[in-house]
TrEMBL record:
The lineage of its organism: Bacteria, Candidatus Roizmaniibacteriota. Belongs to the universal ribosomal protein uS4 family. One of its GO terms (molecular function) is rRNA binding. Part of the 30S ribosomal subunit. Contacts protein S5. The interaction surface between S4 and S5 is involved in control of translational fidelity. This is Small ribosomal subunit protein uS4. Pfam families: Ribosomal_S4 (PF00163), S4 (PF01479). One of its GO terms (cellular component) is small ribosomal subunit. Keywords: Ribonucleoprotein, Ribosomal protein, RNA-binding, rRNA-binding. Residues 2-97 form the Small ribosomal subunit protein uS4 N-terminal domain. With S5 and S12 plays an important role in translational accuracy. The keyword S-adenosyl-L-methionine does not apply. One of its GO terms (biological process) is translation. It comes from Candidatus Roizmanbacteria bacterium CG22_combo_CG10-13_8_21_14_all_33_16.
Length: 206
């Protein structure tokens, strides 16, 4: 089951901004002020030292919430990655990065992955000219991503996201106006800069 509770609570629990709130919003500003304060009435009082398994769990949870996945989805991505010969962490990252909702977000077409997932679910996104309603759809190299209707770009949050001049796209993506494209193979660089993949792999390898 996907988590539907307070999003700032999740980011504070993990100690990092997981990108669950719109950048520049009051909600994100509030989060950044309290990012180092654990949620809960008693704060850090009475908290035990985290075990190795606990560290693995927390790193897995951070990655899962970052991409907005259920536990079963995350586990399935790992199972597919571990079946391949080579770098399991790289294969896992590539699979996560190629999700349609993530690509829409990385292209700067929405302010958060949650909003990207909502647009996809409501068929506001087209891939190669065809409407796609599955956030987990695997985007392939050369696929063109765009809004299904021009009216979608008039939504204030979407319009602001698309018009962001400071956006830096990953090397594997291209975007002209409101049309984007997966231009090359995804890498693990962006994920590895924020998460310890070794701990995630160790958690699922038990």
């Amino acid at each position: 089951m996907r988590y539907t509770g307070p999003k700032n609570r999740i980011s504070r629990r993990e100690g990092i901004d997981l990108g669950l709130k719109t950048p520049g919003s009051k909600a994100q500003a509030s989060l950044l002020k309290k990012i180092n304060i654990l949620p809960g009435q008693h704060g850090t009082k009475g908290r035990r030292k985290v075990s190795d398994h606990g560290k693995q769990l927390r790193e897995k949870q951070k990655l899962r919430f970052y991409f907005g996945l259920t536990e079963s989805q995350m586990k399935n991505y790992f199972k597919k990655a571990v079946r391949k010969t080579g770098n399991t962490g790289l294969f896992l990252c590539q699979a996560l990065e190629k999700r349609l909702d993530n690509i829409v977000y990385r292209l700067g077409m929405t302010p958060t992955r949650a909003s990207a997932r909502q647009l996809v679910t409501h068929h506001h996104i087209k891939v190669n000219g065809k409407s796609v309603g599955s956030p987990s759809y695997v985007v392939k190299i050369g696929d063109q991503i765009e809004f299904a209707k021009n009216s979608t770009t008039k939504i204030p949050a979407i319009e602001k996201a698309v018009g962001n001049k400071d956006l830096i796209l990953p090397t594997w993506l291209l975007r002209k106006g409101a049309v984007g494209k997966l231009n090359g193979e995804t890498t693990s660089e962006l994920i590895e800069n924020q998460f310890n993949l070794r701990l995630v792999i160790e958690f699922y390898s038990r």
